[in-house]
Inverse folding.
């Protein structure tokens, strides 16, 4: 699964997932990820190949963000529940009910057209495409986060802990 590969690339261990469940982490990443990527890629107009520096800084931010904030005292906020549900999906994919796995795939695919429009806008320097594509890519991601909160609720209702293998 793609999410498992991303989690491995970001070295997301239990401590990092707990820290990422902090609303400051989840919301700051959601609010800045696509705009920073757009600005970094767009900077090639002014910086040429030196635009690789802002691109690397954005990659560093995306890697560092889940590590910057302390674990929250409580994990009952919307973003925290979504992050913990995503952690379950990534860590225990074979134990996830089919409906949750299916919906995660559907929502990942639903963000693909927006991602393609976003990328095309960056390639052609069309700001309207970048904004539209970013919105179309982000909306399914927020739905995904909400759906992961449902997964967490179902997981807990079955008497499972999000930190232990089933």
């Amino acid at each position: 699964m793609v999410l498992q590969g991303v989690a491995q690339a970001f070295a997301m261990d239990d401590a990092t997932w707990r820290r990422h469940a902090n609303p400051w982490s989840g919301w700051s990443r959601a609010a800045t990820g696509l705009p920073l990527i757009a600005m970094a890629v767009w900077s090639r107009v002014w910086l040429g190949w030196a635009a690789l520096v802002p691109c690397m800084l954005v990659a560093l931010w995306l890697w560092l963000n889940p590590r910057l904030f302390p674990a929250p005292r409580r994990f009952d906020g919307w973003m925290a529940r979504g992050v913990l549900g995503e952690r379950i999906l990534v860590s225990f994919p074979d134990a996830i009910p089919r409906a949750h796995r299916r919906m995660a795939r559907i929502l990942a695919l639903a963000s693909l057209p927006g991602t393609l429009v976003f990328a095309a806008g960056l390639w052609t320097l069309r700001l309207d495409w970048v904004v539209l594509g970013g919105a179309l890519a982000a909306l399914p991601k927020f739905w995904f986060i909400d759906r992961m909160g449902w997964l967490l609720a179902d997981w807990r209702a079955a008497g499972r802990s999000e930190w232990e293998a089933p």
Q: What stands out?
A: Residues 2-157 form one domain. The mean pLDDT is 92. The first helix runs from residue 2 to 9.
